[in-house]
Amino acid sequence: MTMVGTIFSVSISAQQDYDIPDWIKNTAGWWATDTISENEFLNAIEFLVNDEIIQVNTLQSGENSQGVPDWIKNTAGWWATDAISDNEFVNAIRFMINKNIITVNSSNEYKITSFLLTWDEIVADAKYANDGSLGIKDYFFKNTDRMLTTRVDVEHERYLDQTTFDLLSSGIALYRITGDEVYLQQARSVVKTIEKELLKDGRVFIYKPISGIYTNFSNQETLQDIAYLALIDSDKDYTKLIQIIADRMLEEEVVPATQLIYDFVWYDGEPLTTEMYIPYDGAVYLESLLLAYEITGDEKYIEQVKKTLLSIWELRDTDTNLIPSSIDANDLSVNNEFMQQYGAGIFLKLLLHYYYLTDDPEIFSIMEYYTDAIITNFWDGKTWDYRVNSDGTVHSNVIEGNYAKLDDALLLVHDLDPKKFETIYEYAKLDYDNSFQNKISVVNDLVIHAVKDDGSKESSESMMQYAFIINQNVGSRLFHETNQIEYLKSLNDFYHSVILNHKWTGGYIYGIDSYTLENTKLGWILNQDAPAMIANKLNLTFMPLDDVEIIWTKIGNYEISEPFITSFDDPGRFNSIDFDYSDKSIFFHTIHNKGQIIFADEIKSVIVDNENYANFDSHTLNTLDGTHQYLVFLK
């Protein structure tokens, strides 16, 4: 709140009813009796205007008054004791504003901060789930150094006979958003358990805590998580471990004749199934090899990725350029002719990741053809069809809850060459607007697993790992580029509804019924990967405006202004922003251009390029022309 600046006009009617909160009247009374300062009273008035209880329109700059006159203070006291009406009090406020005695600063800032998530709540919500998993670990493995948890069926209140490595991804995620070494040590301890007990001849096994036996497990997701740890843990060298696991994957899970991948193999190296399901395990396999290349620099990993990508592309329908979702890795026969809309997005993300690392023109050309094929065949005029066969016929036209996986991929492809990929931006925006913003697939502020095109029920679940993982990337970007506050409001409502309704003793469950909010069979299991899914909402705690570009992730020579998310359950990663929750500081390695960044929390101090910087106010940081590093301390 300031006493200088802009003149406003206030639209009121003579006897309009105002929904003024009681605390405003209390504040007016306290100011009238000198219990609080004038500035605190003015902050309350600013709330009335910014919350649109009183409508205000900016006109122009004008002369400044010297202070709030005594009669306004008297009026506030009379109103607080009901001696005058709400209308008379509002008229007094109108006088102060029109005479430029007060100004309502940063109405846009106020609206934005009210819909941003706070750092505190994200850390608390993620920590709640992590603490629950640590409790499960202590129940099964108390007084041991096994850093494992066990799956839990919350509906039937029973533990399942399968351990998980979710404390690894949770530790990584919490360390990323807090900088707290406790969580880094948690992740290291999981890896230590894997190395000491579960890694046998390059294969990672699963321990069954009830039956006390070991069973086979695919290496793919484990390798991905260990690689994520290696990217943030500079004090440890994970190269050898990553090579051991990745080399075994190359030896046992790749079919040399086809260059495709087995989804699962037995402990003896024989395939459990000959299927390669591209949107799921196939994508995790390829993504884990790309990460292995980033860590080790070993060319054989990225070479295998390209061989497999080209082999998949060879299976496309040459008339439509669409690929199937499931293939027999041995004989190239097609198990599922259709590809899901999210599967198309995941395949694009794999192409993007490979291209970021290589600048390979052949892969770029595939992205061109495939994006055209997606728009031609998946677009129904308003949203993406859910499943489309390779020949272009529609297998399912419902609106399915993972739509933003495709929207996000298309936006990133657009960024490679905005002119060449000009049209795909509009399709991504239209789909997100029609699916999420217009709430055709939303009920109780939850994203429904699937609805028909008219919004009627198809599959009623709210699944925590679906839209919850990815929507913030698309929504925050569209807000930045349109300045439409509704994008942030929808994401804020969505986040809080998921946290409230999926919350369970010791964490969050995977799925509930979106309509009734009751448990559903598809989601009975406790989601012990929830800390990572919650932590990736950190890009909703501050928001760039104008032409400001905050770089979250650098891959190869490419800068990405969001956390990079690839496979189905992947919560993503970033490497260009460091968070230290202990001193409430955020270090931005790279911010481009002049403009503003609005923070949910109030700014305490700022350092730019190692020099103290004073051009900030309350929640707003004013950035400089060019490219700079910013260290922001929050209150």
Walk me through the structure.
Among the domains are: about 5-105, no CATH class; about 220-315, no CATH class. It is about 45% helix and about 20% strand. It has 19 helices and 39 strands. The strands form 15 sheets. Strands 29, 32, 33, 35, 36 and 39 form a six-stranded antiparallel beta sheet that branches. A four-stranded antiparallel beta sheet has the order 28-34-38-37, with helices on one face. A three-stranded antiparallel beta sheet has the order 13-14-15.
Give me some keywords for this one.
635 residues; 6-stranded antiparallel β-sheet; 4-stranded antiparallel β-sheet; disordered N terminus; 19 helices; single chain; globular; alpha+beta
Mind sketching the topology for me?
Blueprint: E1 6-11, H1 22-32, H2 38-50, E2 55-61, H3 70-80, H4 86-98, H5 107-115, H6 119-141, E3 149-153, E4 158-164, H7 166-178, H8 181-198, E5 199-200, E6 203-204, E7 206-208, E8 213-215, H9 220-232, H10 239-253, E9 254-255, E10 260-261, E11 264-265, E12 271-273, E13 275-277, H11 278-296, H12 299-314, E14 326-328, E15 334-336, E16 338-340, H13 341-358, H14 361-378, E17 387-389, E18 394-396, E19 399-400, H15 403-416, H16 422-437, E20 442-443, E21 446-447, E22 450-451, E23 457-459, E24 461-463, H17 467-482, H18 486-502, E25 503-504, E26 507-508, E27 511-513, H19 530-535, E28 542-544, E29 549-550, E30 553-555, E31 558-560, E32 577-580, E33 585-592, E34 595-599, E35 603-608, E36 611-613, E37 616-617, E38 620-623, E39 627-634
Antiparallel strand pairs: 1-2, 3-4, 5-6, 7-8, 9-10, 11-12, 13-14, 14-15, 16-17, 17-18, 19-22, 20-21, 22-23, 24-27, 25-26, 28-34, 29-33, 30-31, 32-33, 33-39, 34-38, 35-36, 35-39, 37-38
